[in-house]
Amino acid sequence: MDKTWNNKAWFLVLPVLVLVAFSAVIPLMTVVNYSVQDTFGNNVFFWAGTEWFEDLLHSSRFWEAMVRNLIFSFIILAIEVPLGIFIALNMPKKGWGVPVCLVLMALPLLVPWNVVGTIWQVFGRNDIGLLGYYVNALGIDYNYVQDPFDAWITVIIMDVWHWTSLVVLLCYAGLVSIPDAFYQAAKIDGASRWAVFRYIQLPKMQRVLLIAVLLRFMDSFMIYTEPFVVTGGGPGNSTTFLSIDLVKTALGQFDLGPAAAMSLVYFLIILLLSWVFYTVMTNYDAER
């Protein structure tokens, strides 16, 4: 017997789709318009064609910022995903400890991005910050304002503190969805802790790990507020990521054409890399 599909439910979400399309398409078209024109103010524009895109692709400043972005995202994923899995595996699955751990894990996610930057800006200072004071008291010369390596370490630790909880909560949701029958069968077979993780827990977490990796990659690749508040992109340009460089070009230098071209290329890079991540992980899951 053929099934009858009722598509009337789409009319309920149609207003939302129209609103999202309207709010997304108009700003995008504005950016596209600026990317092919030049202006000297007074709302007077001149056709520039692909000039800004050509200049961008030949700009060492753009490529250096993108390399910094890629390195930062790779480090973040390499730390937060294994750490999130480890914490989720060791969280209680029953009892009063479950809500306590979930609340503690959710707290960093509730802190606004600019507040996170302000907290770590003060926390890392040598004069009044606990981190800066005690690290220097141990004989380690730490100064994120002057040393690029210290600035990177500070930004990475700050991001790990802020966003590892997201990976933990997603992995924990995948773990608690595993039926007890799987663990009982593994116990009867005498499976080791590693075997349980390798053949039961990790496969069951693959879907949520895909979401976690995609979200963390996109967030880390688009990071702006936290490092801008802490280091301002410095010292020098050591923590000037693409987002910071884009804002400096658009607002600091008021070069709207180059900034629009950069934002479009930036968007396409994020879209392409996210698609690659998604394709590789889903194909790997299908082959298993």
Automatic annotation (TrEMBL):
Protein's organism: Mesorhizobium hawassense
Protein name: Sugar ABC transporter permease
Keyword line: Membrane, Transmembrane, Transmembrane helix, Transport
Entry's family note: Belongs to the binding-protein-dependent transport system permease family.
Entry's localization field: Cell membrane
Membrane topology recorded in Swiss-Prot or TrEMBL: Multi-pass membrane protein
BP terms from Gene Ontology: transmembrane transport
GO cellular component terms given for this protein: plasma membrane
Coiled coil: none
Main location: membrane
PROSITE patterns xrefs: ABC_TM1
Transmembrane stretches, start-end: 12-36, 70-89, 101-123, 151-175, 208-225, 259-280
Upper taxonomic lineage: Bacteria, Pseudomonadati, Pseudomonadota, Alphaproteobacteria, Hyphomicrobiales
All residue ranges annotated as the ABC transmembrane type-1 domain in the record: 66-277
Classification via Pfam families: BPD_transp_1
